[in-house]
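Incident log, support desk, overnight shift.

02:14 A customer reports that sequence design results differ from what the structure should imply. Their input is reproduced verbatim below. On-call engineer (initials T.W.) acknowledged and began investigating.
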């Protein structure tokens, strides 16, 4: 057994990183619920109010991310590989940043209400976030078998997101005659699809930790 592994063996399991991951996942879960709510507003005022709530959670997420990186910089021994801690933290931050970005685009593009079809992409992202939250909650157990079903479901959701994205983009370019509206919605769809992709990246980071430490 190497010195690093030996020291890890004597470390308490309830370290500082896992509670931070759990806080970040809880914050992301709240943002996912608000993200779905973007499809339910009926006015610019409601859209701005919801965007502001998402913006607040994005700031909370940034604070948690900063704390994790600070702890990573001053920790001699970490419970998982440093690069894996960094990747998981960055992935959670990326998903939250994209949720915030989509909300900002809706305000910037002066879109007051989303079509019901396009709103399905928000639902897919939120379902993936629910799987992420459940996965982070079992991180303490380091049980890969418990994680596997969540990995499969997020992969399926990413595939569903790709299918919906292609469907909506194809419909947009076939039917939309207004060039400005086409640009707005193609940009919005790209960011919505990218958000779901980042959820899969996050699960890949989590899977790497499980495979190395289970």
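02:41 Re-run completed on a clean worker. Output:
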């Amino acid at each position: 057994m190497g010195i690093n592994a030996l020291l890890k063996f004597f470390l308490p399991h309830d370290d500082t990183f896992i509670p931070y991951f759990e806080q970040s996942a809880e914050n992301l879960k709240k943002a996912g619920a608000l993200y779905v709510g973007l499809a339910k507003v009926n006015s610019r005022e409601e859209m701005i109010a919801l965007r502001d709530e998402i913006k607040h959670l994005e700031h909370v997420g940034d604070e948690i991310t900063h704390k994790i990186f600070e702890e990573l910089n001053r920790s001699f021994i970490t419970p998982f590989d440093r690069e894996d801690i960094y990747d998981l933290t960055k992935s959670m931050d990326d998903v939250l940043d994209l949720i915030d970005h989509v909300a900002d685009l809706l305000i910037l593009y002066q879109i007051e209400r989303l079509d019901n079809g396009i709103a399905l992409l928000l639902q897919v992202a939120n379902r993936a976030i629910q799987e992420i939250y459940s996965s982070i909650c079992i991180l303490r157990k380091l049980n890969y078998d418990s994680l596997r079903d969540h990995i499969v479901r997020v992969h399926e959701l990413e595939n569903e997101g790709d299918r919906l994205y292609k469907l909506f983009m194809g419909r947009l370019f076939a039917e939309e005659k207004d060039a400005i509206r086409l640009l707005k919605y193609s940009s919005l769809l790209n960011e919505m699809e990218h958000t779901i992709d980042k959820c899969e990246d996050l699960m890949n980071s989590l899977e790497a930790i499980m495979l190395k430490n289970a």
